[in-house]
Amino acid sequence: MGRIRRPVRLAGVLTLCAALASCSQTQTGTDAAAGDRDEQRIPAARAADAEPFTLVASGDVIPYPSIMRQARQDAGGEGYDFTRIFAGIRPVVAQADLALCHMETPYGDDDGPFTGYPLFRSPPQLAESLRATGYDSCSTASNHTLDAGMEGLTRTLRAMDEAGLEHAGSARSSRERNSPTLLKAGRATVAHLSYTYGTNGIPVPDGKPWAVNLLDPRKVVADARAARKAGADVVVASVHWGTEWQQKPDARQLRLAKRLTASRSDGRRDIDLILGTHNHVPQAYEKVNGTWVVYGLGDQVASFIPSMYRGNEGSTARFTFTPPERAGEPWTVSEAGFLVTHSDTGPPFRVVRATEDRFPEVRQRVREAVLSRGAADDGLTETR
C-alpha cells in the first residue's frame, strides 16, 4: 500500500460565546451556548510558509446488508473488511492532501447485530477500512446519527478514534462538541464542521443537546468563526440537507447556501467550502457569493433496488486551495474538479470510477447533474 497521510487534529478551541463576542461587528449575527474553553490556539499558516493543498470529498457511506455480506466475504468469513470495496477509489483518495468522507450510519458492537434500514448498525471495522483507503476525517451528522442511541454514537466515535480517523458532527461531551476538528493539509490548517437537518424524529438525548449538530445557520456561522479564531486557514462545512431522490437542490438548500456563503467577518468569508450529502443522487456544484457549494455528492457506498438504482451513483469533489500572498487574507480555490463514481453491485460489490469506457450512462447522468447550474463556466472540470 502507498503512503497514507495522517493529518493531526489540533487541540485548541474558543467557546461559541467567545466567538460571538469577537464577531459582534460582523455582518451576520449568531446565537450560541457556552461550552468549555481551551486557551491553546493554533496560528494560521504564514503566507511565506504555505503551499497549495488538494482536498477530496466523497458522498454518503451507507452499508446496506448486501454490502456488509460482501465485506464479510472479503474478510474470509471472520470479521469485516471493506478495503476491497473501496479499492477502486483509493488512488484518488490517498493522493489528496486531505480526504473527507460522510459516515451516514452508526456502528454496532464488534460482534453485532448489524442492521440496515430503517435503524442502521454498521460493523465498526468500517472505520479501519476508511482510514486504510486514505480518508482523514468523516462527517457524522446525519438523519441516522441516533439510530442506535447515544451508545451507538459513542461506539462510532470510539472506533474512529482507534482507527486514527477524525470526525465532526456528533460528540460525546459538550467539550468535544465545542472543539472544532482542525486538520493539517500541508502547512495549512483546515476546520471540518458537520451538521444535519434532523434525526428522523429520534429526539436528541435529554441533557445532551451537543450530541449531534443540527443545521441552524446561526450555529454554523458561530462555529466557523470559532474555528477561524482557533487558527483555521480554511473552513469546510459538511451539511446533511435537501430532499431525497431530488436531482435539483430544493428551496431550503438554495436559501441556506446563499446565507452561509454571504457571511463575512472583517470582510473575509466565514466558510470556504460547503459539501452536501443526504439526497442519494448527485446534485449540482455551484459558486455562490464566490464560494463553491456542492449541493449533493450523492452516495458513495450504497446498494438500492433497481427502481432506485440512481442511489448507486455519486460524485467525488476535488478542490485545490492556494494560499494568499499575505498572511491573514483568504485562501482561494485555484482548481475545481469532480469525478464520477458508481457502486457496482457485481458480484462482487465494488465502488468504481464511471468513465467513457465503463458505465458511460452513469457518467453522463452524473455529469449532467453536477454541471446543471453552470459550474463549468466557473471552471469546474471532470478529473481524469
UniProtKB/TrEMBL annotation:
Its EC number is 3.1.-.-. Belongs to the CapA family. Residues 54-304 form the Capsule synthesis protein CapA domain. CDD domains: MPP_CapA. InterPro entries: Capsule_synth_CapA, CW_Biosynth-Accessory, Metallo-depent_PP-like. One of its GO terms (molecular function) is hydrolase activity. This is CapA family protein. Gene3D superfamilies: 3.60.21.10. Residues 1-21 form the signal peptide. The keyword Signal applies. Keywords: Hydrolase, Signal. It comes from the Bacteria. It comes from Streptomyces hazeniae. PANTHER family: PGA BIOSYNTHESIS PROTEIN CAPA, POLYGLUTAMINE SYNTHESIS ACCESSORY PROTEIN RV0574C-RELATED.
